[in-house]
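Before going further, learn to read the protein records used in this course. The integers have meaning only within a learned vocabulary of local backbone shapes. To see the layout at work, look at the sequence and tokens printed below.
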Amino acid sequence: MKKIVIIGGGAAGLMAACRAGEKYGGSAEIIIVEKNDRPARKVMITGKGRCNVTNNCNTDTLISNVPKNGKFLFSAFSEFNSSDTMKFFESMGVPLKTERGNRVFPVSDKACDIVDALVKGVKQNGAHIINGRAVSVIAENGCVNGVKLENGEIINADGVIIATGGMSYPLTGSTGDGYKIAEKLGHTVTELKPSLVPLTVHEGFCERLSGLSLKNIILSVFEEGKKKPVFSELGEMLFTHFGISGPLVLSASAHMRKIGQKQYTAVIDLKPGLTLNQLDVRILRDFDEAKNRDFANSLDRLLPKSLIPVIITLSGIPRDEKVNQISREQRERLCSVIKNMTLHITGTRPIEEAIITGGGISVKEINPSTMESKIIKGLYFAGEIMDVDAYTGGFNLQIAFSTGFTAGNNI
């Protein structure tokens, strides 16, 4: 009987086991080696615990949302697309819904339902999960023949899939084990960088605003030397002691491909529903109701309380200036600050705080049609361990499911 070992029980590894088990129908022993006591711990925290399982779109859109090596995934996305992902989970008893931006979630809004469905699929298809940590893949004469565990146990294998994830969120088990295993076999690991990650900024006032969440704002990011923003989207963000975070910021970070080489500037439109003229009219109305107040006490209706002192400083208008003394030029400056609150990005938080790892096993060394190594026969890769990463919106999990399915189908 054939024996297949899958290293890593995350989204990619579990899907690979489902497909391999379905294909072999009991004529192969399929073992998932997972070092955590529970599989798919990272899936449990995606989408704030709701799990954005995929994006309801076509293959071209999937590829366009993978800025690094998107074309490499054409075969995998063609073999198992977002529609297939949705059918899989609904067949496992998890009804799904499509929200803004074609993001797909379980109707229950519970990531655990997605994990339970994957584990159910693994069991139904005859695969089983063992608790252990793989330290190396044994290969002879360019062919896989086993996996060595940390406790010294050797599991013989006719085929191995490495689906250990990246280096982000190490508490979920993504500690970079797979990179070391692959390097020992002659594979190249490209530079590892954080992707979908909070950003550090130059402006010291962010620390004073720490904990403030802004909703329904537009965040735009500009790259040095480019007139058009590399990212601009409506949503929510969060100020932190080091800079900025939240959904918009994580999305924006994936578009900042040259951070460290180019300067990036973030611009926040605090009132995207109003033009500059409409905002001026609104401010005049508020000023009219507070004619004899100090400027510092006139913005309560317009802005969050903790943000007001920062906006006052940026506007250059004295705090104690009476509202009825403020000139048109000063109002224009105030409107400009509210519509264009500018932050200078200094870098990202560490890779351990990123949702996704950028970089990984070089795709030049992997067959895109099968996910098999071009260096070691019988060795396959799936998921985040490879040098592919996408924007937010369910695309990264779809990469995991598509490459996991492809590897499981071809091993």
User: Anything to note?
Assistant: Residues 198-348 form a domain with the Helicase, Ruva Protein; domain 3 fold (CATH 1.10.8.50).
